[in-house]
Write a structure and sequence with these properties.
- Helices cover 28% and strands 24% of the residues.
- The strands form four sheets. Strands 2-1-4-5-6-8-7-3 form an eight-stranded mixed β-sheet, with helices on one face. A three-stranded antiparallel β-sheet has the order 9-11-12.
- The chain starts with a strand and ends in a 39-residue tail after the last strand.
- The structure holds zinc ion.
- The site of zinc ion has 8 residues, from helix 5.
Length: 347
């Protein structure tokens, strides 16, 4: 069967026509022709045209918006078609529906695919940082399914094009995609502490989780200094050491325990709460104070505070995925400051 895909280019009388002798794959029933009219060239590439699907003689057959993507290499065409075939269960929701595939045998390799037009891409960072929670979850779900089907998109996380297709997160353009089995080793628990990328396993999904702010921010301000939730393990001395030199070490280590308690409540981590409790009771505070040269030098007590960085707070968090998880009356963070008795000054 001979199938033809043709498109007209708006504002240009040129009618380009591909007549391909072989149809590799066809997902919808075009009688004989897949015609795309009023095509508009994508600004970023001369190989992608947006247009309207129509029947023979260029009369409108449907208002279905489609994209014609042309290839100058059969290898690239077949690669992209293979990805769409492997991800068939995601077509129409998380990736565009592949409507038709054409290839032209001969010396001059070329071909084309016709896809549903999923609109303009939205940048990953822009959309995932500030988009709705449901969209961010949808995007993560889509990427995980693509990985589970055996493909990575293999682009820098911020440059993976993501589309909003009828409210669903959608990926398209699989030229750089590679077949690989996903290396992620743990589930994504929204609101929990951010794991290390090594512990998580899959770099691409990890990067998107970070962009989408699904985990509690791993950076917080400790006495106006940058500190990390990874410092909440062990004896927490590394966190207390972040305090500036005038700070009383007893106060600093106590505030470290409070940070741990804060995250323990927010992220539902009873082990972290138990750790802070044990450290208080087993003499860790005294050991830290003795250890600290600050005591010997008589630095003045200093009541500090910790807070999450405003710009790292998740946006539009709602429902059970909201972070922080507990109510914050009047926007106040649920931490309290202990009053630390002033230490005797050295003579
Ligand atoms: Zn993966």
């Amino acid at each position: 069967m001979t199938l033809t895909v043709a498109y007209t280019v708006r504002n240009d009388s040129t009618v380009s026509t591909f007549a391909y002798a072989r149809c590799l794959q066809r997902h919808v029933d075009f009688p004989q022709f897949a015609l795309v009219r009023d095509g508009q060239m994508n600004r970023n590439t001369n190989r992608i045209f947006h247009g309207l699907l129509c029947s023979a003689e260029f009369s409108f057959h449907t208002s279905r918006k489609v994209v014609v993507k042309t290839f100058h290499s059969t290898t690239q065409l077949q690669h992209e078609v293979a990805v769409y075939a492997r991800l068939a269960h995601l077509q129409g929701t998380h990736i565009p529906q592949l409507l038709a595939v054409y290839s032209e045998p001969g010396d001059e390799e070329r071909g084309a695919i016709v896809l549903d037009d999923v609109g303009n891409q939205v940048g990953l960072v822009d959309e995932l940082s500030y988009g709705s929670l449901s969209f961010r979850r949808d995007a993560l779900y889509a990427l995980m399914q693509i990985h589970d089907a055996g493909y990575e998109l293999r682009d820098s996380a911020n440059r993976i094009p993501i589309y909003n297709f009828k409210g669903r997160a959608c990926f398209a353009g699989f030229a750089p995609a590679v077949q690989v089995s996903c290396a992620r080793r743990r589930n994504i628990e929204p609101g929990s502490l951010e794991p290390s990328s090594e512990h998580f396993g899959c770099w691409e999904i990890y990067a998107m989780c970070v962009s989408a702010h699904v985990w509690a921010p791993d950076i917080f301000s400790f006495y106006e200094r940058k500190a990390y939730t990874s410092m909440l393990s062990g004896d927490m001395w590394s966190l207390a050491d972040c305090a500036p030199r005038p700070v009383d070490p007893r106060e600093a280590i106590e505030l470290a325990y409070e940070v741990a308690e804060f995250y323990a409540v927010q992220c539902n981590l009873p082990d972290l709460a138990r750790l802070a409790c044990n450290l208080r009771q087993n003499g860790n505070t005294e050991r830290y104070v003795e250890h600290s040269v600050a005591v010997a030098r008589g630095y003045k007590p200093y009541l500090g505070e910790f807070r999450i960085f405003e710009h790292l707070a998740p946006h539009e968090m709602r429902s059970d995925y909201a972070w922080p998880r507990i109510d914050r009356p009047n926007g106040a963070l649920p931490y309290k400051l202990h009053h630390i008795p002033q230490l005797p000054q050295p003579s």
